[in-house]
TrEMBL record:
This is Uncharacterized protein. Residues 186-259, 292-311 are annotated as: Disordered. It comes from Citrullus colocynthis. Residues 193-214 have a biased composition (Polar residues). PANTHER family: U2 SMALL NUCLEAR RIBONUCLEOPROTEIN AUXILIARY FACTOR-LIKE PROTEIN. Residues 238-255 have a biased composition (Basic and acidic residues).
Length: 311
């Protein structure tokens, strides 16, 4: 920290010592450290009565004080040490003697950041009359401005904290809504999974009941019947065509036989046995497939096809 960046410091000494005070009263003191200009640092202490003391150090004097104390490093580090000591360290105000009826003869401001750390001491000069009044006014106004600045900063922090609380409340409400939706979705998903796990058994049961309901004819019998129908229909078509051609041939032969039988009708009485034998043989020859068997086959085919269409 450089001197131009130095923030005013206000405080009360942790201890006030007055050697050979006599009967003079000892009041409470306040100190004030600030920069009247960017190249100087001023130390002020007052009890707002008869004791107002100050010391102004230039940058060169502060560097010499740094060397006397034994603090190494850059000048800014020494300034930081002074600030830390005056703000958080042990600050003592040591006074000696009497200056008539107005106060002490000499005063030193001693500060130490913590035990074991370097101690710096600054001799103060007493201010009287208008100079003392001006110093007290500077301290009072500086303290007021500092408190005002801190109050404004506190208000801003409170407003920011309120905004954060509002945001947190809104986020909590959104989070609760999301949690509620997730809970409902989880229940719905669980219900769907439960239904999905139960649906196969139900489907199998329904399929089984449907099959039982529709099974008027046993499955093995229906399979055989359908297979027989498909096979029989093809074989029967071929057989029917074969029978038709055979029947046509037999009809032709029959016509020929009938034609031959007309001339022989006269000789029927002469040889009845032969005519009967020929007629019998003709009947046997014409019955390649019995009529009732052929009717049954065709009826079975027609009946099976109707049953399958119904099924």
């Amino acid at each position: 920290m450089e001197l131009q960046d130095f923030a005013p410091i206000f405080g009360e000494p942790t201890r006030v010592e007055w050697i050979n005070r006599g009967s003079l009263p000892l009041h409470r003191f306040l100190f004030h450290v600030y920069t009247p200009n960017p190249s100087q640092l001023r130390f002020l202490a007052t009890d707002f009565h008869s004791n107002t003391w100050e010391s102004t150090k230039s940058a060169l004097q502060l560097q010499d004080m740094r060397d006397d104390i034994g603090i190494g490093g850059a000048f800014s580090e020494f300034v930081n040490y002074v600030v830390a000591s005056m703000n958080f360290g042990d600050v003592r105000l040591c006074m000696e003697g009497q200056s008539g009826k107005d106060g002490a003869a000499c005063v030193k401001l001693i500060a130490q950041k913590s035990k074991g750390m370097p101690v710096f001491s600054i001799s103060l000069t007493k201010l009287i009359d208008s100079a003392a009044s001006e110093a007290m006014a500077t301290l009072s106004l500086g303290l007021f401005n500092s408190l005002k600045h801190k109050e404004c900063a506190l208000i801003k922090e409170q407003e920011h904290s309120l905004q954060l609380k509002t945001m947190i409340s809104s986020e909590k409400e959104k989070n609760e809504n999301i949690q509620t939706q997730l809970g409902q979705y989880g229940k719905k998903q669980k219900l769907q999974n439960t239904n999905a796990s139960n649906s196969p058994n139900k489907s199998v049961h329904n399929i089984g009941s449907t099959q039982v309901t529709n099974r008027v004819v046993p499955a093995h019998r229906r399979a055989k019947t359908r297979g027989a129908l498909l096979q029989d229909s093809e074989d029967d078509n071929e057989r029917e065509r074969s029978l038709q051609s055979t029947f046509e041939e037999k009809e032709k032969k029959q016509e020929l036989l009938n034609t031959d039988a007309l001339p022989n009708a006269v000789g029927f009485q002469k040889s009845p046995d032969r005519s009967i034998h020929d007629i019998g043989s003709t009947k046997v020859t014409n019955r390649v497939v019995p009529a009732h068997r052929r009717a049954r086959t065709r009826g079975a085919l027609l009946q099976d096809n109707e049953d399958d269409n119904g099924r």
